[in-house]
Design brief:
InterPro entries: Anti-sigma-factor_SerPK, HATPase_C_sf, HATPase_dom. The structure is a single chain. By secondary structure, the protein is of the alpha+beta class. It has five helices and six strands. Helix content is about 35%, strand content about 25%. α2 packs antiparallel against α4. The longest helix has 25 residues.
């Protein structure tokens, strides 16, 4: 398993770079061609949400993107590596996965200073006001992006905390690619 780590600044222009990297690594890992656009869109949504949260709370802090290629051999010698989320057992067979983790450092809830202007970042899909929230579409909260992600990724885990939010998304690899990844 290989992990590629990308650190981006909280700038919208860097979301495109994250999408391109995710699509490239997913393709190389052996993701089905039909899922590449879904990965690109899900990563774009997760990174856009993180950029919007950082602009509001911590604009100088970087956003961490991890692309985990589950097509290679399992790391055996490193006890710190947790492969349970990457190798799932279904009907007795192992399913290898491509995983993307987007970690930000913005608190999951708005501070008192901004709470009067916006709903909490993860609550609800609609806002009452006419203003466009950071990272949202006019009339929709940034939480809509998280709803889109859950519809695009095969498995999603969203872990909001005061120290930041971790969005973990994964997709299964094609069966023939897990046995011979060099057959492209």
């Amino acid at each position: 398993m290989a992990t590629i780590t990308l650190t981006i600044s909280a700038l919208p222009a860097h979301v495109r770079t994250a999408r391109l990297m995710a699509a490239t690594v997913a393709r190389r890992a052996g993701i089905a061609a039909s899922a590449i656009d879904e990965i690109r869109l899900a990563v774009g949504e997760a990174c856009s949400r993180a950029v919007a949260a950082h602009k509001l709370h911590c604009p100088t802090q970087p956003i961490l993107l991890q692309l985990i290629d589950g097509s290679g051999p399992d790391p055996v010698s490193d006890p710190r590596t947790d492969t349970s989320s990457r190798t799932l057992r279904a009907n007795g067979s192992a399913t290898r996965r491509f995983e993307v983790v987007v970690s930000d450092r913005a608190p999951a809830k708005d501070t008192d200073e901004t709470a009067n202007h916006l709903e909490p970042l993860l609550d609800g899909l609609f806002l009452d006001g006419e203003d466009t929230p950071p990272g949202g579409i006019s009339g929709f909260s940034p939480g809509l992006g998280l709803a889109v992600i859950t519809g695009l990724a095969d498995e999603v885990s969203i872990d909001p905390k005061d120290s930041g939010t971790v969005v973990r998304m994964s997709w299964p690899l094609q069966a023939d690619q897990t046995q011979n990844p060099s057959s492209n």
